[in-house]
Amino acid sequence: MNEFKDNHPAAFQSAQEAISWIVGRMEKLGIKPGLQRMQMLMEKLGHPERRLKFIHVAGTNGKGSTCAYLTSVLRACGYDVGTFTSPYLEKYTNRIQVNGEDIPDADLLRLVNDMKPVIDEIAETELGAPSMFEISTALAIMYFGKVAYPDYVVWETGLGGRLDSTNIVNPVVTVITNVGHDHMDILGDTIEKVAAEKAGIIKAGVPIITAAQPHEGWSVIEQTAKAKKATLYSLGDQFNYANVTSQLDLQTFDFTGPFRPIPGVPISLNGEHQLKNAAVAVMTLEVLRQYYACIVDDEDLYKGLKETRWPGRLEMISNEPRVLLDGAHNPEGAATLAAALQTVYSYRKLNLMMGMLSTKNHTGYLRHILPLVDTLIITEPDFHKKGDAEMLAELARELLHDMNRQVNIVVERDWKRALEILTSRTEQDDLAVVSGTLYLISDVRSWITYQTDSEKGW
Questions:
Q1: Which residues have a Cβ under 8 Å from the Cβ of 6 and sit 6 or more positions away?
Q2: What are the start-end ranges of the H helices in 177-293?
Q3: What is residue 352's three-state secondary structure?
Q4: Contact indicator for 34, 163 with CB cutoff of 8 Å
Q5: Considering the entire predicted model, what is its pTM?
Q6: What is the DSSP letter of 77?
Q7: pLDDT tens track for 185-199
């Protein structure tokens, strides 16, 4: 366990000190796509990733919900489950969990102190210093592979797939929820290029499940799967779902797949898109059941799906006034949110507060949202890549002019003041929505729930 500690004094005295060192690298080093540093890290750490069964999940939207479904069902089946997700909503340690419990501070401190000399060593090579996300990924692998030993690890990609640091693992099954317009400044300027990056997590002979549709770069996923001799299970072809009932906080669907039909599957998460995410999770579990002798009884499957919660996605965080949080931050996410606002929720007036990063496609987002809102409050997330509120407001005004719509627009850069404006304008029959980057959702959620600032981050 402590291969390095005997030769090196502890670099950090507390978990908070270690976390600050990791997180501080984000602004200094940013995102560094590529796997060479991760390969060297794993080699020097003794390849702990080879001891674990990973379910690797990529996709533009729905990754987090799909990971939540998989984790919940596997836990209901009696398995110990590790999860690695990003971004985190409240605390850095949220991103590394076993059975819903964050990595303990003592383990985090010990592991980071173990890894620090290796990280410093790699920083001296021509590959350069490992990034925040690479160190976080390695920390998760060390915790799962050398301390906690979960039966399965639900493993969410950070960005894209092919060059993402999570792609260092060889999973038992691979999932690509969908492909859409996100991070195109890094992943490529067409859906096909984005799809190729996501498809980079497909491994030789490892089954792949996807809900990507033909217009979403599905053919790129299909071609990659064929080339890698990976069996492809695609929504609409090998498996499908049909909505049976839909009401607030309870939906049911019938699942049909290549191995068996599963009728009346219940979920508590809202929105049509959650049926699709749950169907992807069910197909993934069916593959685990069929090929890896994973024991998934129907009773546990239903229980796990119904009990799945996913904070910050169509989450009613307050009832007086009603405040709904949703981390929609790209055109596809906005379309999903708009559909839910038109079918799931009732309201007299809709007041929406939004804050974005500067790197996103805001025009597509606003086209879906503007037709529905009565008041639009534009703010800025507390993050270094925040989108300028006044520029966003100007874009909204232009689009509203084209739509021939009148909407009350308020610009308030301070998100806490913006939240006060939002709640003060929302009466009993109205609905307030906070949407946009998860950095904003994280702050608002912590503030409403605990009256504290979050540690949010990528």
A1: none
A2: 184-187, 191-198, 218-227, 272-292
A3: strand
A4: yes
A5: 0.89
A6: T
A7: 555 568 888 889 899
